[in-house]
Amino acid sequence: MLKTIPATATKSPATPTPIPPRPYPTPSEAPLKRYAITLTNWPVQHSLKPIANSTKQMNTDYSRKIISLRASLIVFSLIALVATTLRAQAPAGTSALDRMPNLLKTADFRGMLPYLNSNLEIALQDRKQTCTRSQAEVMLRNFFMKHPPKDFKLIHKGSSGQGGEYLMGTLTSTTGTTFRTTIVFFEKNGQDLVHQLRFE
Fold first, then answer.
1. Which of the four, 19, 62, 113, 133, has the lowest number of CB atoms within 10 Å?
2. What is the pLDDT of residue 70?
3. In whole angstroms, how large is the CA radius of gyration of the chain?
């Protein structure tokens, strides 16, 4: 006799339980999420503002340096102008007739400049010419370098027939050479200035 095997009920596969969506990022994703949000929401002008401020500061510093340089040049030019003017003027309270003998003795050709007329006649031995004050400075410097003075003796002082005054003396160089020296002065703007200077 055959036994009847009862049919077993077929089990249907289990339906997977749905995983609810995560409302927040995982801890590993959170820093990246916050960083991305920060970069996305940060205005562009905020990121460019430091660069703009740096450029503005550089321009300001450069402008200040240019202004300082120009001011220094102006001050230097004024100082040079004043120095040149003072050098071309005779010291107050001194007379050219009183100062020239000592200036010749010491070969101080720069000290002679305030007492020279703007145009004068210079005779150095056989060379005679009319020159400016600056040209006379060069000629006197070369003459004194070639004939360094040892002494100057004033022989005579007087007045010329043309309303000027003159000095006559002897200049002795360290080489023993003597030069008969004549200096003729004429008054100009209340000051006696050298119009003729002769070393013969």
1. 19
2. 77
3. 50
Place of tokens 């200049």: 171
Specify the pTM: 0.52
- Which tokens hold the place of 26? 């995982």
The correct CATH number of 96-199 out of 3.10.450.50, 3.50.50.60, 3.30.70.3400, 2.60.40.10 is 3.10.450.50
Given a cut of 90, whether residue 179 has pLDDT beyond it is: yes
User: Six-digit token pair at 155?
Assistant: 């022989």
Side-chain half-sphere CA neighbours of 182 within 13 A: 15
What would the mean pLDDT of 8-17 be, rounded to a whole number?
56
Domain boundaries, the chain: 38-86, 96-199
Reference 155, options 142, 169, 135; nearest CA is: 169
